[in-house]
Amino acid sequence: MKLQKFKISLVIFTAIVMLQPVLLRDRPALAAETTKSDAVNPIETSLNELLTVRDDTSLSEEDRLLKELKLRKKILNWALTSSLDEVTKLTAKIDALPEFAEDSREKELRDGFKLSLESFTAYYTDKSEKFTELTTIDQIKSLAQEIKDYRDNTYNPQIQQIVNFLLLFYNEDVLKIANTRLDKISADIKKLEKLGYIKTGAFANELKLAAQTLSDARALLEEAKNAVLSPPKPEEETTLEVQLPVEPNKLVESSLNKVKSTYDTFLQISKSLRKILGIE
Questions:
Q1: From CA 93, how far away is CA 87, in angstroms rounded?
Q2: Phi/psi class of residue 199: alpha, beta or left (left: φ > 0; alpha: ψ in -120 to 50)?
Q3: pTM of the predicted model, to two decimals?
Q4: Distance, CA of 147 to CA of 79 (rounded, Å)
Q5: Eight-class DSSP state of 198
Q6: Residues 6 or more apart whose Cβ sits within 8 Å of residue 172
Q7: Where are the chain's structural domains?
Q8: How does DSSP assign 118-144, residue by residue?
Q9: Which residues of 211-245 are buried (b: 16+ CB within 10 A; e: fewer)?
Q10: Residue 34: its pLDDT value, please?
Q11: What is the mean pLDDT, run by run of 10 residues, along the chain of 280 residues?
């Protein structure tokens, strides 16, 4: 009976372990969640249509200009709508963070990022209103160039900083889940050892590897946090744009990769246990 219970437990455990790497890999990155899928990106389709129209010699000059105007407005409208959607989603993620101490660096950063996001919302809302008044191709080109310059010089750099900040807390959640899973696996293996179903220490190396990998992941995350939360130098202080070091982003990525590697170890343990217990 006890073995049967463990077989059921291991089947469930195996399913979870097999799903976890997929969930970790497929859970959208914070930046990717805020944009449309490349596979269905309407702007790419519209750009291709625009190139086709401009090269279509069968069209009269009037028809060509009308179609070009329509397509350019479509592209610009999509860019404005997507930007506002991106800002809305990132604002929601910033608001969903835990409460921070009043004098903490975390709160300082979050408050600064919220101000930036508010300014982005105001900017794109204003441009969306102006967009409705455009009647010529030259007007559309002018506004499109203005928005592109704004994105390149102001918007994109700050959005990346916000994403990096949010990833710190996503990584924290991922690590907690992985450590909880390691504790559960270790406890189940100890029970099986006591019951004599597996040799004592049979998975000692795998468990040690998983624990060490998660410890390394934690160290990388803490290093990223220290870099992000260190007080800024006086010359780096700004009114709205809070600048974070670029390096923490790489540290967080390395930490997440180590967590993924740990789940690979979990999966291997599961496969070996199933084979030993004859439940494959």
A1: 10
A2: beta
A3: 0.70
A4: 9
A5: S
A6: 221
A7: 2-276
A8: HHHHHHHHHHHHHHTT--SHHHHHHHH
A9: bebbebbbebbebbbeebbeeeeeeeeeeeebebe
A10: 41
A11: 50 41 39 44 65 68 75 87 94 93 91 96 96 91 93 92 89 94 94 91 95 96 85 54 62 93 94 84
Question: Do residues 192 and 9 touch, judged by C-beta distance below 8 A?
Answer: no
Please give the pLDDT value at position 239: 45
* N-term to C-term CA, the chain: 18
Give the Cα separation of 153 and 150 in Å (integer): 5
Q: Among 22, 31, 68, which residue's Cα sits nearest to residue 49?
A: 68
Residue 136 and residue 141: Cα distance in Å, rounded? 9
CB 265 within 8 A of CB 206: yes
Residue 8 pLDDT: 44
Q: Shortest CA distance to 12 belongs to which of 2, 22, 20? A: 20
